[in-house]
Design a protein that fits this description.
single chain; 209 residues; alpha+beta; Nuclear Transport Factor 2, Chain: A; 2 domains; five-stranded antiparallel sheet; four-stranded antiparallel sheet; 46% helix; transmembrane; PepSY domain-containing protein; membrane
């Protein structure tokens, strides 16, 4: 009998606790310190825009107003503590087309800046092909200063008259020269001429006695 009484008392205590909790929750939910009008005014001061009507709920035993605010940048969902007016959560729900356009334009500008930087970097660093082309141009410039074959043969004949049997261009100690072989009867001559100045570098004559 005594056990039954204890069990009944325990059960009543549990129900009482549950009932008190539900009562406090409902009381908290229905009686926040700040009214909907006060919450709306509070939010307007911080986040101007078109508001939806605040909806009251309970989160973690505290009254919470939830509402949406529409601004030029987009739509935002807010959660506000019903007792203190503190913003608990602010989430972007939707961005306006204008805002998306601005972000797209910013992304485009950043992309163009990156492309310009890459282009400048490419211009500053020559590729192997460009270097080869530059070297070819330099060589062409050098060749433009070289005397012609005809001029070289004329200079050689002035030193040793005869028939030119061979003419080659070669490099002698980093100096570009013409190597010319001339035959006159039984006699032969090998003449090296500076390809730039036309000066005689060497002259070898083989005379058949």
């Amino acid at each position: 009998m005594r056990k039954k009484i204890i069990w009944v008392i325990s059960a009543l205590a549990v129900f009482a606790i549950i009932g008190l909790t539900v009562y406090q929750t409902n009381a908290t939910s229905s009686n926040p310190d700040l009214s909907m009008e006060e919450i709306s005014e509070f939010v307007s001061n911080q986040y101007p825009g078109q508001q939806t009507e605040p909806e009251l709920s309970v989160e973690n035993g505290e009254p919470v107003y939830q509402m949406e605010v529409t601004q030029d940048q987009g739509v935002y969902s807010l959660k506000v503590n019903g007792d203190t007016g503190q913003i608990i959560d602010l989430t972007s729900v939707e961005r306006t087309a204008e805002n998306k356009k601005e972000e797209t334009e910013k992304d485009t500008e950043h992309q163009e800046e990156d492309n310009n930087e890459d282009s400048e970097s490419d211009n500053n660093s020559e590729t192997d092909e460009e270097k080869t082309q530059d070297n070819s141009n330099d060589q062409a410039t050098e060749n433009d200063a070289v005397i012609s074959h005809e001029e070289a043969m004329e200079i050689a004949r002035n030193e040793f008259p005869g028939e030119v049997t061979d003419l080659e261009m070669d490099s002698d100690d980093d100096i570009l020269v013409y190597e010319i072989e001339i035959v006159n009867g039984e006699d032969e001559a090998t003449i090296e001429i500076n390809a730039y100045t036309g000066n005689i570098v060497s002259l070898e004559i083989d005379i058949d006695d």
